[in-house]
Specification:
The protein has helices spanning 7-19, 23-35, 37-68, 70-93, 100-103, 113-125, 128-137, 149-177, 182-212. By secondary structure, it is mainly alpha-helical. The protein starts with 6 loop residues before the first helix and ends with a helix.
Length: 216
């Protein structure tokens, strides 16, 4: 059986991360604003498919690492704690965006829906920060037992991906509705800044909790 701990905290952390603007969200917004909600939805599904590639790689790699050495896994968890604190500090230091979200409503070159899907896949798969995040994030919510580790990582990753895809589908719908309405974009930009700060606090807390936690 998968040994999963603090599942509610995992869901909250994942939600905040999904709400934090990044390359994936801006790509989805640009496609939805430029080509309509169907293109935005295909972009969101492509990003989700790409995320599953990272999830599978992380699950296989981390489970193999646990089987090889408990010490090596402990090192990964400590490095993960440091990475999450660093990531949180970066989010707290970020300034309100003056371009990013506004630029997302600029219509990109129209593309077939199939091409939009694969663009979404590549946008996610080719981002090395995502696999680093999963390597740092997932071990915090999996127990020390060596049994079922791979399934636990995979299950958490799939839950994260499904929730993120649902959120991104909502982003696609909102972006299509807000097309050409700059006041809406301004409100989205201000909300995004506050979400980044809240997410930064959450990541710092997760990193510190991991650093102070006992292996018992």
């Amino acid at each position: 059986m998968p040994d999963i701990h603090h599942f509610a905290l995992f869901l909250l952390s994942g939600l905040l991360l999904n709400m934090t603007p990044g390359a994936d969200m801006l790509f989805i917004m640009s496609r939805s604003a430029g080509q309509g909600v169907r293109a935005g939805a295909m972009a969101a599904l492509g990003v989700g498919a790409g995320c599953l590639v990272h999830v599978t790689a992380a699950a296989v790699g981390l489970s193999a690492l646990i089987a090889a050495s408990d010490l090596a896994f402990s090192v990964v968890k400590w490095l993960g704690a440091a990475y999450l604190v660093w990531l949180g500090m970066g989010l707290l230091r970020s300034k309100p965006q003056t371009q990013g979200l506004q630029g997302a409503v600029t219509a990109p070159v129209a593309a077939p829906l199939r091409a939009v899907f694969w663009q979404g896949v590549l946008t996610n798969v080719l981002n090395p920060k995502i696999v680093l995040f999963f390597l740092a994030f997932l071990p915090q919510f999996v127990g020390p037992s060596a049994h079922g580790q791979g399934w636990a990582f995979l299950l958490l990753g799939v839950v994260f991906t499904v929730n993120g895809t649902l959120f991104n589908l909502g982003v696609a719908w909102v972006a299509a509705r807000a097309r050409g309405r700059m006041a809406d974009v301004g409100r989205m930009r201000r909300l995004a800044w506050w979400v980044r700060r809240l997410t930064g606090v959450m990541f710092i807390g997760l990193g510190l909790r991991l650093a102070l936690a006992s292996r018992a």
